[in-house]
Amino acid sequence: MDEMIRERIKQVKKGDQSAFEDVVSFFQNKIYQHCYRMLGNAHEAEDIAQEAFIRAYVNIHSFDDRRKFSTWLYRIATNLTIDRIRKRKPDHYLDAEVKGTEGLNMYSQLADNGRLPEEEVEGLELQRYIQQEIIQLPPKYRSIIMLRYIEEFSLQEISEILDIPLGTVKTRIHRGREALRKKLRHV
Amino acid sequence: MKCNNEAVELMHKYLDGDITKEQEQTLSQHLESCDACQRHFHELKRTITFIQSAEQIKAPANFTATVMEKLPTEKKRIKYTR
């Protein structure tokens, strides 16, 4: 499959727009899912996922063929989702870290509609509940947890996608796992 | 070994495949004697399984076609690059 993608990218670079269709088709579910989990709603996910492919197409000449296309594409998509999250006004202050909590923010302190986790599980499928907990992680942990465990990138690849040092990826994945452990331990 | 620092640090190293043989031995010896850490480790592994079992989400049916329609036309792109 990597070979097919490499071939299509070459064609797109030569000006064959139609070759991009196979690229979109191959990555659409992965990128849409990534955006959906980052943003938490279908409308924004569709909007941002489309934008990610359009930007990839427009900037295809800046893609270095020696690198992995998926890493590059996820980087575009992740940056777009983070920009979108930042632009959401009401969330702006929610994202600010609370003093002395080491990376935890207001999200983790808000009661989830006042309902207890146990009640949530009864009302929703377990998968949906987990999805909800992932979405409540601060974006900087959420992106890494998803890239690692849902998209199955290596820590090194995640460091490239997010353009942050490997050590930072490790610190954040530890904190993300601990935060989710605390939320999911009673499930 | 202090449970809440060292042992947890080693658990995360283990999960990232960063653990050395000696560290792995230290960790497993500690887990055998400490229920709290054993539970902690179990919860971490279970959390990962939970994340991986999250619902698969698919793009809307007409996604690719919509993207293709929205791409800038080739003419325009050529004009930009020349």
TrEMBL record, chain A:
<dbReference type="GO" id="GO:0016987">
    <property type="term" value="F:sigma factor activity"/>
</dbReference>
<dbReference type="GO" id="GO:0006352">
    <property type="term" value="P:DNA-templated transcription initiation"/>
</dbReference>
<dbReference type="InterPro" id="IPR000838">
    <property type="entry name" value="RNA_pol_sigma70_ECF_CS"/>
</dbReference>
<comment type="similarity">
    <text>Belongs to the sigma-70 factor family. ECF subfamily.</text>
</comment>
<dbReference type="InterPro" id="IPR013325">
    <property type="entry name" value="RNA_pol_sigma_r2"/>
</dbReference>
<dbReference type="InterPro" id="IPR013249">
    <property type="entry name" value="RNA_pol_sigma70_r4_t2"/>
</dbReference>
<keyword id="KW-0805">Transcription regulation</keyword>
<dbReference type="GO" id="GO:0006950">
    <property type="term" value="P:response to stress"/>
</dbReference>
<dbReference type="Pfam" id="PF04542">
    <property type="entry name" value="Sigma70_r2"/>
</dbReference>
<feature type="domain" description="RNA polymerase sigma factor 70 region 4 type 2">
    <location>
        <begin position="128"/>
        <end position="180"/>
    </location>
</feature>
<keyword id="KW-0731">Sigma factor</keyword>
<dbReference type="InterPro" id="IPR036388">
    <property type="entry name" value="WH-like_DNA-bd_sf"/>
</dbReference>
<dbReference type="GO" id="GO:0003677">
    <property type="term" value="F:DNA binding"/>
</dbReference>
<dbReference type="InterPro" id="IPR013324">
    <property type="entry name" value="RNA_pol_sigma_r3/r4-like"/>
</dbReference>
<dbReference type="Pfam" id="PF08281">
    <property type="entry name" value="Sigma70_r4_2"/>
</dbReference>
<dbReference type="InterPro" id="IPR039425">
    <property type="entry name" value="RNA_pol_sigma-70-like"/>
</dbReference>
<dbReference type="InterPro" id="IPR014294">
    <property type="entry name" value="RNA_pol_sigma-W_bacilli"/>
</dbReference>
<keyword id="KW-0238">DNA-binding</keyword>
<dbReference type="InterPro" id="IPR014284">
    <property type="entry name" value="RNA_pol_sigma-70_dom"/>
</dbReference>
<feature type="domain" description="RNA polymerase sigma-70 region 2">
    <location>
        <begin position="28"/>
        <end position="89"/>
    </location>
</feature>
<keyword id="KW-0804">Transcription</keyword>
<dbReference type="InterPro" id="IPR007627">
    <property type="entry name" value="RNA_pol_sigma70_r2"/>
</dbReference>
<protein>
    <recommendedName>
        <fullName>RNA polymerase sigma factor</fullName>
    </recommendedName>
</protein>
